[in-house]
Amino acid sequence: MQKTAQGLVRTVYQNSDLSDKAVVLIAHGAGAGNQNDFMDSFCTKLAEQNIQVISFNFLYMQTMYETGKRRPPNPNKQLLQQFEQEILAVDSSLPVFIAGKSMGGRVASQICASTGLGPKLSFTPNSDVTAKLRGCIALGYPFMPPGKPEKFTDRTQHFKQLTVPLLINQGERDSFGDLNSLSTEQHKSVLDNKMVQLSWIASGDHSFKPLKSSGFTLDDNIKTAVTNTLGFINQLI
C-alpha cells in the first residue's frame, strides 16, 4: 500500500498493484485534520482492503497546519463547495464514495441530499457531483452536541432527501449521539430510513475509543468500522 501526500491539501492511499475496486474521498472532523492518527489509521486499513482512499483538508485546516494556530471551521456553505470541488477532481473510472469523520460526515451527507439545504445555506448539490456517487459513510455522526438535544432535527432533516445510501459507524458511548439517546422513539423514527444504515461500535466514544473494561481496543474498533465500510461498499458496487 502506498501513501502519497499532496502537500497539506490531500493524501492518497493506494495499492501499488492498482487493484483497487472503489474510491473513498474522506473529510476530517472539526478539530483535527487528515494527519490525525485516527484518520490515518482508518484510511490505511481501508486502503489495505483494495479501496483507494483520498483524504483531504478543508481550507481552514490547511491554514492550521501551516501556522500552528487553531481556527474555526469555514462556514458550512464553503465546506460543501470545497467538498464538491474535491469530488469533481477525483479522476477515476471506479465507483466513488464520500465519507467523513464527525463534521466531515455531516457535510458529506448534506451533499447527498437531493433538494439541497434550503435558503439558510443557499446550497443545492451539483448534479454532476451527485451523479458520480454510490454511497456515503460517516464515522461518528454529530447528531447533537453534548447538552444540545434540540440540534438533532436540524442535523438529520436532510436524511429524508438522501439520493444514495448512508452508512453511519457510531460509538455506543458517543457524546454526540450514543446508543441510549438514539434508541428513543423520537430518534428511531428519523433513523428508520431505508437509506440510512446505523452500525454500532462496541463501547466506542466519538472517536471509537472503548472503555478498558470492554475488552476492546481502539485498533479493534477502527478495524470494525473498516469491516462495516467494506461490506457497505461491496453491496453497492
Describe this structure in a few short sentences.
Residues 21-234 form the KANL3/Tex30 alpha/beta hydrolase-like domain. The chain is α/β, with parallel strands linked by helices and 237 residues long.
Structure characterization notes:
It comes from Psychrosphaera saromensis. By secondary structure, the protein is of the alpha/beta class. It has one domain (2-236): Alpha/Beta hydrolase fold, catalytic domain (Rossmann fold). Helix content is 33%, strand content 19%. It has eight helices and eight strands; from the N terminus they run E-E-E-H-E-H-H-E-H-H-E-H-E-H-E-H. It has helices at 37-47, 59-67, 76-89, 103-111, 127-130, 151-156, 185-191, 218-236; strands at residues 2-6, 10-14, 23-27, 52-56, 96-101, 133-139, 166-171, 196-201. The chain has an eight-stranded mixed sheet with strand order 1-2-4-3-5-6-7-8, with helices on both faces. Strand 3 (23-27), helix 1 and strand 4 form a beta-alpha-beta unit.
The name CATH uses for the topology is: Rossmann fold
Cα separation of the termini = 22 Å
How many helices? The count is: 8
Mean pLDDT: 91
Q: What is the number of independent domains?
A: 1
The count of strands amounts to 8
Strand percentage lies at 15-25%
Determine the fraction of residues in helical runs and give it as a percent range.
Answer: 25-40%
Q: Which segments are poorly predicted (pLDDT under 50) over 5 or more consecutive residues? A: none
What is the alpha-carbon Rg in Å? 17 Å
How would you write the strand order of the largest sheet? 1-2-4-3-5-6-7-8
User: Major β-sheet, in short?
Assistant: 8 strands, mixed
Apparent shape: globular
What's the CATH H-level superfamily name? Alpha/Beta hydrolase fold, catalytic domain
Structure classification: alpha/beta
CATH architecture label name: 3-Layer(aba) Sandwich
By CATH reckoning, the class would read Alpha Beta
> Helix-strand pattern, N to C?
EEEHEHHEHHEHEHEH
